[in-house]
């Protein structure tokens, strides 16, 4: 009551009218939409639903079809309501009717979009219909070729919106720049990529920062999600920040895998903001072992080309290398021994076998660690041993040194960080519309 009274007073003082519009509170809301198709002859179909609840700033990030939440009765009721709306306004074309759905499967109309949605490919995957073709047929005056009973749900499809955004800043601060390297994961089975860019394209401030729509299909949800995980690991984007790390973490999160989602998913799961993948102890060892093996493989290649060893070999142990790897705040001894095309690596007293074709010219590297296949990307490296590796979707910064170099590095002065406390920097280009202070003002 107090809130109502204060709101009425605020409305009266601000607008001279104390009337309030009261909306129903919906607990754990899901954003679920129905795809429809209608012709000019009074026929209309609903083509099942799309689950669009994973959002940031009320904009969809991950979509799938069908929804894990709807039962056949609710699906039919929502579909019939969507078709009734289209017929009531004599709509003809493809369209989408959007709903909020509460935890008891009550659904509430949001809006109708009289166009194709970004996420329409997941509907095409599970129904087998080409929605663009159907729109063109309707526009030319042809009647629909299908009946409601003909519309199937075959398998499962997932779409991730790949954005040029920094997910570590408010779940996605737009990034601009030139795509210095770009490679879509089209070699992964059952993958579709809808994009309009290529290597060398510019991502500017003038358009939506979406790079592409990445879609995977499977006979069931688990298969579609596994293929999405593989596709994200194999997607190469350089030159701009991107949200692949966030997308990958979402689709493997236990709540998402169980279908326990709502439009509040991101702020609930990451209340302090997105921080990237948190490595388990085993994953940390895998990353260190992979980084050490990659470092040695590169040095051996240089030795073959130049004829001069770049790192000392401990002869008493055969072909083995003692390395020191810095990851985060930790420094870890990593012992690497070569055995044919593979490496035996000891980290924290645990031995791991690392094998790969070691195609060092490729941005992607498929590595098998004790039988577990991982796809990594080496983002950058320099002469001081600093390297960045994308592992499990997140980019980690490491420094790899030989035992001798690690000892000598103790005597090197620490590089002082730049003091930016007196500098104001805009996170992206824009126009200054006002300056509200003048020299001498205290803020």
Automatic annotation (TrEMBL):
<dbReference type="GO" id="GO:0006629">
    <property type="term" value="P:lipid metabolic process"/>
</dbReference>
<keyword id="KW-0067">ATP-binding</keyword>
<dbReference type="InterPro" id="IPR005482">
    <property type="entry name" value="Biotin_COase_C"/>
</dbReference>
<feature type="domain" description="ATP-grasp">
    <location>
        <begin position="17"/>
        <end position="140"/>
    </location>
</feature>
<dbReference type="InterPro" id="IPR011761">
    <property type="entry name" value="ATP-grasp"/>
</dbReference>
<dbReference type="InterPro" id="IPR011764">
    <property type="entry name" value="Biotin_carboxylation_dom"/>
</dbReference>
<keyword id="KW-0547">Nucleotide-binding</keyword>
<keyword id="KW-0436">Ligase</keyword>
<dbReference type="InterPro" id="IPR005479">
    <property type="entry name" value="CPAse_ATP-bd"/>
</dbReference>
<dbReference type="Pfam" id="PF02786">
    <property type="entry name" value="CPSase_L_D2"/>
</dbReference>
<dbReference type="Pfam" id="PF18140">
    <property type="entry name" value="PCC_BT"/>
</dbReference>
<dbReference type="GO" id="GO:0004658">
    <property type="term" value="F:propionyl-CoA carboxylase activity"/>
</dbReference>
<dbReference type="InterPro" id="IPR011054">
    <property type="entry name" value="Rudment_hybrid_motif"/>
</dbReference>
<feature type="domain" description="Biotin carboxylation">
    <location>
        <begin position="1"/>
        <end position="271"/>
    </location>
</feature>
<dbReference type="Pfam" id="PF02785">
    <property type="entry name" value="Biotin_carb_C"/>
</dbReference>
<keyword id="KW-0092">Biotin</keyword>
<dbReference type="InterPro" id="IPR041265">
    <property type="entry name" value="PCC_BT"/>
</dbReference>
<dbReference type="GO" id="GO:0046872">
    <property type="term" value="F:metal ion binding"/>
</dbReference>
<dbReference type="InterPro" id="IPR050856">
    <property type="entry name" value="Biotin_carboxylase_complex"/>
</dbReference>
<protein>
    <submittedName>
        <fullName>PCCA carboxylase</fullName>
    </submittedName>
</protein>
<dbReference type="GO" id="GO:0005524">
    <property type="term" value="F:ATP binding"/>
</dbReference>
<keyword id="KW-0443">Lipid metabolism</keyword>
<dbReference type="GO" id="GO:0005739">
    <property type="term" value="C:mitochondrion"/>
</dbReference>
């Amino acid at each position: 009551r107090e809130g109502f009274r204060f709101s009425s007073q605020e409305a009266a003082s601000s607008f001279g009218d104390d009337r309030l519009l009261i909306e129903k509170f919906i607990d754990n809301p899901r954003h679920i939409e129905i795809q429809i198709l209608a012709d000019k002859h009074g026929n209309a179909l609903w083509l099942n639903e799309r689950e669009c609840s994973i959002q940031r700033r009320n904009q969809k990030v991950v979509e799938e079809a069908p929804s894990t939440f709807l039962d056949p009765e609710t699906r039919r009721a929502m579909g019939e309501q969507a078709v009734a709306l289209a017929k009531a306004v004599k709509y003809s074309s493809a369209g989408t009717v959007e709903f909020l759905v509460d935890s008891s499967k009550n659904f509430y109309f949001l809006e109708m979009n009289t166009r194709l949605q970004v996420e329409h490919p997941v509907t095409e995957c599970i129904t087998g219909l080409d929605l663009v073709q159907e729109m063109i047929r309707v526009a030319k005056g042809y009647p629909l070729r299908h009946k409601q009973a003909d519309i199937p749900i075959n398998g499962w499809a997932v779409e991730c919106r790949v954005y040029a955004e920094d997910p570590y800043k408010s779940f996605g601060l737009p990034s601009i720049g030139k795509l210095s390297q770009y490679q879509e994961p089209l070699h992964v089975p059952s993958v579709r990529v809808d994009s309009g860019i290529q290597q060398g394209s510019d991502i500017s401030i003038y358009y939506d920062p979406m790079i592409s729509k990445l879609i995977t299909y499977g006979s069931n949800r688990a298969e579609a999600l596994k293929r999405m995980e593989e596709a994200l690991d194999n997607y190469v984007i350089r030159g701009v920040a991107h949200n692949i790390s966030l997308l990958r973490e979402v689709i493997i999160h236990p709540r998402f895998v169980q279908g326990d989602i709502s439009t509040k998913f991101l702020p609930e799961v990451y209340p302090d903001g997105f921080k990237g993948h948190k490595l388990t102890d085993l994953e940390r060892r895998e990353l260190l072992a992979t980084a050490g093996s990659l470092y040695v493989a590169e040095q051996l290649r240089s030795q073959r080309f130049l004829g001069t060893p770049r790192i000392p070999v401990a002869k008493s142990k055969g072909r083995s290398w003692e390395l020191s790897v810095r990851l985060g705040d930790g420094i870890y001894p990593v012992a690497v021994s070569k055995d044919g095309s593979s490496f035996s690596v000891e980290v924290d007293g645990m031995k791991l076998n690392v094998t790969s074709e070691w195609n060092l010219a490729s941005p992607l590297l498929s590595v098998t660690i004790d039988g577990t296949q991982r796809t990594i990307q080496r983002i950058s490296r320099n002469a001081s041993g600093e390297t960045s590796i994308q592992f499990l979707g997140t980019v980690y910064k490491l420094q790899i040194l030989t035992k001798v170099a690690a000892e000598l590095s103790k005597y090197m002065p620490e590089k002082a960080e730049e003091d930016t406390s007196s500098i104001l920097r805009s996170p992206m280009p824009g126009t200054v519309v006002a300056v509200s202070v003048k020299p001498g003002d205290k803020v």
